[in-house]
Design goal:
13 strands; two-stranded antiparallel ribbon; 14% strand; 376 residues; globular
Length: 376
């Protein structure tokens, strides 16, 4: 069997480090916040070259808290993409805001910033939430132009893109650090994953950082004294210790993901298969970290035939995302309908995620492509 993602292979290599770290936390007795969380927050901030990193319980909470920290008022509009995980839009509604969707680019699958500009000209938008989807960085140059022109706040959803980079002029920044505030998810399948739910908020804004720290702990700076209504959303000390271990390996794992993407591309080119795949670009900075390796077929029928054949051959796949957010039942009140965002709707029917994780072997990649070619 070739799984879509395999946590066990990675664990075999770092097992002794992880067990030692977990034992240290439990033996110390400080299992809520404490030194292991502070250590990881410091290491993450240094890795990202950002002033503040605040550990929280998961990526979804990171989005809710970040938007709350920015100060969304009831009825204010927040713009984002319909082709992403549910939490990107649900955080808007949970803060009393109104989600405004904009279609995605057919090449990158990221939010179409040209369309964003047109919406910003017509509607009063307070915050834009760009998503660095599947590990590919949104265009920082264009995003910066929009931020300066319209004065919108930027909340970066970097849940899938830790380590990816973008460029503004001659300055290279990591995803999550460009905007006013950014978030990461450390769900186990992420490029940097815990062994359970975990997340982080990052920012260079001292005031936003202070609000986020208070909000993650019931709106409190001092225990039992609450300045605002917050949340119970602390990063577990055990997960923080594990993430510190994994962060040391992240660059090596990221490079292997890029090598896997290159090998997929090489074999697809050799076989001249009728499908679209993400091309590895040499830009002088790392624009894609391949959290997911998503390919696109001519139509839904072909996609489903390929997926069925791969499943029969015990190859794991996934559909991201089978129903765009603007068509979800819980967002029906906002008046969106089929046909509003044709690119996102097409991708939901024609894309398929193939196996990718650092321990995947070259032979397994060749086998996956061979099975795809048997259908195509």
């Amino acid at each position: 069997m070739i799984p879509l993602f395999d946590l066990t292979r990675q664990y075999e290599k770092i097992r002794s480090e992880v067990l030692e770290a977990v034992d240290k936390v439990i033996s110390d007795g400080r299992v809520i916040l404490g030194p292991s969380v502070e250590k990881f927050e410091k290491e993450l901030a240094e890795y990202l070259n950002v002033k503040h990193a605040i550990g929280v319980a998961n990526g979804s909470d990171a989005l809710v808290i970040s938007l709350h920290a920015i100060g969304i008022e009831k009825g204010e509009k927040v713009l984002t993409t319909p082709y992403t995980f549910f939490a990107t839009a649900s955080c808007i509604v949970r803060n009393g805001g109104v989600p405004v969707f904009v279609d995605v680019e057919p090449e990158t699958y990221n939010i179409d910033l040209n369309q964003v500009e047109q919406v910003l000209k017509k509607k009063n938008i307070k915050v834009v939430i760009p998503v660095h989807l599947f590990g590919r960085t949104v265009d920082f140059e264009k995003l910066d132009f929009l931020k300066q022109k319209f004065g919108v706040k930027i909340l970066e959803d970097a849940a899938q893109s830790i380590g990816s980079e973008g460029k503004i002029g001659n300055i290279v920044k990591k995803s999550g650090t460009f905007g006013d505030i950014g978030i990461f998810s450390f769900f186990p399948t992420k490029n940097l994953g815990a062994y359970g739910d975990a997340g982080a908020i990052v920012t260079n804004d001292d005031q936003l950082a202070e609000r986020a720290r208070m909000l993650r702990q019931h709106g409190s700076k001092k225990k039992y004294y609450h300045e605002m209504i917050g949340y119970n959303s602390r990063l577990d000390s055990i997960h923080a210790a594990i993430l510190s271990i994994k962060l040391k390996h992240l660059e090596e794992w990221t490079q292997r993901r890029i090598e896997i993407a290159k090998l997929y591309q090489k074999i697809f080119e050799e076989k001249k298969l009728p499908l679209k795949y993400p091309k590895v670009e040499e830009k002088g900075y790392r624009s894609h970290v391949y959290h997911q390796y998503v390919v696109e077929f001519e139509d839904e029928k072909t996609r489903d035939r390929v997926r069925e054949h791969l499943t029969k051959n015990e190859i794991g796949t996934a559909l991201y995302y089978p129903l765009p957010l603007h068509l979800q039942k819980c967002f029906a009140e906002y008046g969106y309908k089929q046909g509003d965002f044709p690119v996102a709707e097409k991708l939901s029917k024609t894309t398929l995620a193939l196996p990718i994780f650092p321990e995947l072997t070259d032979e397994e990649i060749e086998f996956v492509v061979e099975k795809i070619s048997e259908v195509l």
